[in-house]
DNA sequence: ACATTTATATGATAAATATCATTTTTTTTG
DNA sequence: CAAAAAAAATGATATTTATCATATAAATGT
């Protein structure tokens, strides 16, 4: 079992506030899991009873809308924690977490985290700030969904994927979503998403390399996204 | 200056965790404000440096979208706290708060609240739970905006206004939004909103009493909202 | 390697929604 | 109370987006 003290991703999350003793306790109680591409870390409605620390890989957080379509609420990657909201609210998960690539995650049981809350103010504060950041992002996102056109949302999402997750050597976006997933991220029909990608391609804004996407004119895309 | 100890609305917010001594301190540092209908409590981008406790009245939280339209993110009423997210994130307000009717609010400066955070775990936990609740609502809302039609969103919003804020003696919705405001809550053009209200009226789902709205068939509206 | 499934793409069309113009109603103001 | 301004309502039309059908390309299993 690997030691939390030596784990680098810890430094990128609220867990950075933990001291040596707390980290040793953490190492003892955590369990390590490999999640394959397409598998769930947890599902909407499930009682999670702890949080997951993402050591490696990317996953999507989705919610089933009443019309039966999945909506991608957020992408989460290495260094971030999952399940904090459910744990604090003491409610089942509001979203499903599904791996977009093979992942390595650690599970930390609820009672351990709650102990840190009581004794380590900096840790509580970090968690609170993270959730506040999530809330701001969610509000902003909501306004975008409500007020922007599909075209604007697509442009914005491409920029987001580029800026947040970066590009490969061949300049294609590192996070490779299917057209279907991209559509469920911007909230539109798959065909509409594909059609707009074709349009963007013809306009020289992007280039479609098979299923992969290269952003060719980031400035124009940014203007387009408003 | 009225005493926080005797204030009833305190019981409906995170402040209920404060003990007698803390409430006395609170009374000493808080300032009381009357806000008239249409006035701001604070504006997007402003440094708030504390939180507001709503003693009476309702306000809308809006965000200006890049296309220049205001979007109503949330309605907030008596007993709730405002500005918690900005204070914790140590950032300017992400949203504007504008009174929908005359309001009575109390302002509590940041350093006072931060003191309670340090010393009163139950209070911190309450605040955290509130923000977690807000985050869940925001995520749900986002999915609705992205996946539902304007008609579904209108039906849902009417039900929400009914269930959350209740009705007057004449059965009209208590929160009286203009057509423009209703449209900016569901994310559509004012004319589209008006047209759909007319349709709902003709279908017998609602009744339009001047500018006021009566829900006539709540079950059908609920089905419509999904 | 070939058959089968799945993903991507495109056309045709329908439905939803926005925009612009105009009218009617309500509210405000002098 | 009348005039002006603002809000609500409706029609005509344009634009956006969804849906259904079908074609092509890529991935998968045996």
Automatic annotation (TrEMBL), chains A, B:
Protein's name in the database: Crp/Fnr family transcriptional regulator
Gene3D superfamilies cross-referenced by the UniProt entry: Jelly Rolls (2.60.120.10), Winged helix-like DNA-binding domain superfamily/Winged helix DNA-binding domain (1.10.10.10)
Organism classification: Bacteria, Pseudomonadati, Bacteroidota, Flavobacteriia, Flavobacteriales
This protein's record includes keyword Hydrolase: no
PROSITE patterns in the record: CNMP_BINDING_3 (PS50042), HTH_CRP_2 (PS51063)
Keyword annotations of the record: DNA-binding, Transcription, Transcription regulation
Keyword field contains DNA-binding: yes
Pfam families, sorted: cNMP_binding, HTH_Crp_2
Domain Cyclic nucleotide-binding: 14-110
Occurrences of domain HTH crp-type (ranges): 148-219
Gene Ontology CC entries for this record: cytosol
Molecular functions (GO terms): DNA binding; DNA-binding transcription factor activity
């Amino acid at each position: 079992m690997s030691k939390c003290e030596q784990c680098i991703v810890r430094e990128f999350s609220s867990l950075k506030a933990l001291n040596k003793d707390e980290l040793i306790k953490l190492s003892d109680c955590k369990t390590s899991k490999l999640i394959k591409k397409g598998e769930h870390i947890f599902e909407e409605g499930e009682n999670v009873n702890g949080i997951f620390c993402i050591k490696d890989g990317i996953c999507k957080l989705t919610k089933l809308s009443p019309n039966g379509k999945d909506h991608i609420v957020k992408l989460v990657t290495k260094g971030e924690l999952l399940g904090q909201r459910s744990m604090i609210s003491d409610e089942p998960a509001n979203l499903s977490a599904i791996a977009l690539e093979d992942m390595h995650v650690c599970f930390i049981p609820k009672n351990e985290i709650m102990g840190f809350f009581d004794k380590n103010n900096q840790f509580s504060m970090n968690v609170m700030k993270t959730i506040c950041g999530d809330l701001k992002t969610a509000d902003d996102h909501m306004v975008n969904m409500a007020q922007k056109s599909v075209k604007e949302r697509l442009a914005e999402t491409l920029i987001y994927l580029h800026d947040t997750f970066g590009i490969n050597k061949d300049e294609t976006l590192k996070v490779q979503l299917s057209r279907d997933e991209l559509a469920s991220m911007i909230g539109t029909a798959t065909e509409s998403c594909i059609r707009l990608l074709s349009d963007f391609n013809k306009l020289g804004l992007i280039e479609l390399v098979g299923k992969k996407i290269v952003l060719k004119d980031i400035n124009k895309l940014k203007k387009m996204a408003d």
